[in-house]
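Q: Could you predict the 3D structure of Matrixin?
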Amino acid sequence: MTGKVWGTSCLLAAILLGATATATRGEVVPDGSRLAGNISIGKSLRIPPADIPDGYGSFADLNIYLTSGNSPQPDRIAAALRLAQKKLDVCRIFLRVHSVNYVVGPPLLSEWESMEFNNGLSPWERAFFSLTPRRSAGVVFVKRLDWTIGRDGITAVGYGGYLEEETDYLKTSRDRLFYRNHMAGYAVLGRSVGESSLIHELGHALLGLRHVKDRSNVMFSGLLARDDDSGFNERQCARGRANYPWVRPVPDRQMVSARPFPPE
Ligand SMILES: [Zn+2]
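A: Sure. Here are the predicted C-alpha cells for Matrixin:
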C-alpha cells in the first residue's frame, strides 16, 4: 500500500516563508527560568487536509514546529515523513501534515531539555507546550536535546501517553493534565538524528508504544542499531489505532473502534 503523504511543495513554501522570521527576543539563563513568556508561534501555514486514500482506516494530523536555524532541509523532512508513512502502512494509519509553524524564541529553546533529564517537567517543556493546541500531535525540530549532557546527548524524544503511568516525572495532577493535554502526541527531534528516528519517536508519541527487545521492530531500543527493514507488528498497530485522540478512525470507515476518551 502506498499513500500520497501530502504536498511537499506546501512544506517547501512554508519553510521559505519562515526564512525571514525574527529569531531572537531575548537570551535565557541555562535553567530556562526566563523562557516563559519569551516564546511565541510566528509564521504558520495551515495545510489543506489531504483526502485519506482507500485502505487506511485511521489517520493522524501532525503539526510541524521549526525552531529558528535548526530546521532540517524540507526534502529531508519530507523523506522522513515518507519513510514514516511507509512503516505505518502496515497499520493502515495515514499521516497528514496539518500545519507548519515557526517558533519564535530565545536561541536556547533549540537546546531542548526533556523531563527525562530533569526528573520532572522542564521549563522548556512547560513554556513550549503551553502554546500547542490541546490534544494535538506533531513534531518539533530543534538543534539538540539536553544541553546538560553535552553535544552528543540524546537527540530525540517521543512523548507517549504511557509515560504518565510508568514514570514519576509528572509529580502533581496538574502536571499530569498538562502532559496529557499538551505534550503527549509530540516528538522532539534534534538536528543530527537520522530519518528513521522520526518513526520510532512517533511510535511513542502517536501510537503510545513502549520499547521492545526485537531488533526487527521499529520500537527496538538498545546499543545495537535497528534493522533497516524494521517494522511494527499487528499488536502494536492495534494499540496505535486505538490511541485516540492522536490517532483517529476515518469517519465512515469503521475498520477499528477508538478507545473511550480518557477523563480530563
Ligand atoms: Zn524510544
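Q: Anything worth pointing out?
A: DSSP finds seven helices and nine strands in the chain.
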